[in-house]
Amino acid sequence: MILRSRFVVPVSGPPIHDGAIVVSEGRILALGSWPDIAAGTGPGPMVDLGETIVLPGLVNAHCHLDYTGLVGMLAPPRNFPDWIKSILAAKAGFSDADFTTSWHTGAVQLVTSGTTTVANIETMPAGLAERRAATPLRLHSFLELTGVRQQRDPVSLVAEAIATLDRCRSGPGAVGLSPHAPYSTLPALFREAAQAARKRGWKLTTHLAESLAEFEMFMFRRGPMFDWLHGQRPCEDCGLGSPIQHAAVHGLLGPDLLAVHVNYLWDEDAALLGRTGASVVHCPRSHDYFHHQHFPSDPLIAAGVNLCLGTDSLASVRTEPGRRSTLSLFDEMAMLAARDNTLAPETILRWATVHGARALGLEGMIGQLSPGAHADLIVLPAPAGIGLVAEEILHHQGPVLASMIGGNWVWHRPGYEPAGLVLT
To answer: Is there a contact between 168 and 176 (Cβ–Cβ < 8 Å)?
Structure first.
């Protein structure tokens, strides 16, 4: 199959005007200008995508599909612990069927808004294999681990998680472990999860240094989170350093870790993340919802940290009158651009593609258009007066025109049906 478009944006290289991509057996065989591709490949099935922009499918490095149905239910709180209490109360009113519907609704939103790979936090082990099979997404399922409220033994908790994930490893994507956060787990669970995941070559992810309340709890043994939790969990691990230092001491930091949020840093935290090779996932709309301090992109970039983007959940996204909030990395990129004008559009686009692929250990395979990569790509309209292509991409809103995963068309917008574009 040969795809022709007004602009092909590899991300790993400059945009190609009047570009073309050759797709064979789920992979990209070649790409370049249409005249060069046409001359080099000879006659064959060609799909003319029209006045469009083709770019890699977006890589969502942190999501909670389970919570899609909570959109608009939680008002921005006074502090982070209050939000945790609110979401626990809201979840208590959801049935297993509600969570399943929420998961599937979120997965559809991701596909239609241009995500082709997602790192999702799974809170419902039952039915996970069936949910994974029901979506075309390249799905990386991270099973959430807490254990504090249930007072579960870390060894048995991790063993159960591994048994669940071993039954869910078919299909595109992968599986991994997600010890939830320093405040909601104990150090022994961090250590056990890290050792078990690394033994199997799995990735890890955790919410880390997300809020000022968490930072104060671990740095100074004070603040609203410490006041709330000190009677519910042992707090001998508090007052010894920052959440980043806590994760390092207990063996979690490494090139296989996706550290989510990382909004609050102490002096050497950025350098520590850089030395260990951990990736950081920024969720701009969630960051805005909680009114966190300015995301510390400058020290993280200076330390060589790989920065990528996630949607988080719709339980922590502001709802605007007359506009339906959905899981969309385009909305995350737009929020990031609005909040930080020092970042070039090309940089933001790399955070949502190449950098997310790097975090998942798939650089060169997803998140870019290059020979040998998976044929995961999306199609956007190219307006007549288009200027800088990267800026146009960041301004896109709503569903994409079409989405391909592994060489198969999995979505197209109603009314956009070029000849040869056939859904599988």
So the answer is: no
